[in-house]
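Reproducibility note. Readers wishing to regenerate the assembly model reported in the main text can use the exact inputs given here. Chain order matters: entities are listed in the order in which they were concatenated for prediction.
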Amino acid sequence: MIKLNYFAGSAGSIPGSIFAEKLIDKMPGLSRVYYCNSGSEANEKAFKMVRQISHKHRGGKKYKILYRERDYHGTTVATLSAGGQQERNAQYGPFAPGFVEVPHCLEYRSQDGTMGAQYAAASVKAIEDVILREGPETIGSLCLEPITAGGGIIIAPDGYWEGVQELCKKYDILLHIDEVVCGLGRTGTWFGYQQFGVQPDIVTMAKGVASGYAAISCCVTTNAVFDQFKDDTDRMSYFRDISTFGGCTAGPAAAIENMKIIEEESLLQNSADMGVHLKGNLNALMDKHACIGDVRGMGLFAGAELVADRASKDPLDEKQVMAIVADCMAQGVIIGATNRSVPGHNNTLLFAPALVATKDDINHITDAVDQAITRVLS
Ligand SMILES: Cc1ncc(COP(=O)(O)O)c(C=O)c1O
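Running the prediction on these inputs yields the following C-alpha cells for the assembly.
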C-alpha cells in the first residue's frame, strides 16, 4: 500500500491480481473478478451486465431481472428496485423498470400450506409462473440470496436449488447469487451457494471479503458471461463499467490477509461446528420459551422467529422483538432482528457471531437471549 495505494481499475494492481486468483480458486466454474466497494455496487454491476448482454445479443429484449420477496440487494435505487422488503423500499419510489418479484420460499410461512419436497416444488413452480407470465424471452437473470439474510434467515427447502438451476437452464436465464452476507465463510463453506450444489453465472460479495477491515466488494462471473462482451468489430465490446475505489489496493491487500487467516485458523470448520452448537442452543431455548416458533440456521448464521402464539403463528409484535434486542444490548450482546423490513413480519432475531467465536461465546449470546426473553415477555 505504501508503494501503490491506488491504480485505476482499467489497469489493475498486483494485490488485485493476487486476490482475484486466490478467490476464483475457491469458486470452481467462475473466473472473472470485478472490484468495487459496496454490496450495492457489486449488484448494480451484475444488473448492468444483464442489460448489456441483452442489448448486445437479444435486441434489448431479455432485460428483466427477477428478485425474491424478502431478499435485500442494496441501498441504491436500482438495488432497491430489486428489493423484496417493502418497508425498506417505502418512500423511495418510483423504482427502475424491469425488476420483477418472485415469491419467498420460507416453509414456516408456506403460502399454500405445503411442506418439504412439495413446498420446494411449489416454490420453484411459483418462479416458473412468473417467468411464463412475463415471457421467458424478456428475463435476463434471477437474483437470489443463497440464504435470505436480513429478511429473516430463510433457507430454501431441499430440492429448491435444483429446481432453480433447471429453470435457469430451461429459459436461458443467468443465475446471479448475492453473497454479500454469506460470502467467505459465514455458512461454513466459502460461499453459501456451495452448500446447495448450485452453479451460478454471477456471484456478488462484500461484507466478508475483507471482514470489514477495508471497503471491498467483488462481482465475479464465468468466462461464458465475460465472453459475451467480446467482439473485435465493436469498439464498445467490453463491460463498460468503472469504479473509483474499485482501484484501491487496500481492499485486495486486506482480502488476501483475511483469506489467509480463514485458512490458517480453520474458520470454515469453526463456522460449521459452532453453527451446530448455536442451533442446538437456540433449539433448547425453543423448548423453554413458547414465543420461539421456528429456529433456522447454517454455520454461524441463524435466526429465531418469534410468535405471539405457536399454534396460529401470529408474529410477535415488532416492539417486543426490539425490546428483546435492546435487553441483549444492555447485557453487552449485540444481536440483530428483521427490523422495519417485511410488513407484519419483523419478528425474527438474527445471529451472525464472528467466525472465531468459541462455545463460550455462543453460550454467552444464547444466555443473554434467554434472559432477555424472560424479562421482556414475563
Ligand atoms: C444480501 C445483501 N446484499 C447487498 C447488500 C448491500 O450491501 P452494501 O450495504 O455494502 O451496499 C446487503 C447489505 O446488508 C445485503 O445484506
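We highlight two features of this model. The pocket of pyridoxal-5'-phosphate is lined by residues 38-40, 43, 72-75, 145, 149-150, 178, 180-181, 206 (CB under 6 Å). The mean pLDDT is 97.
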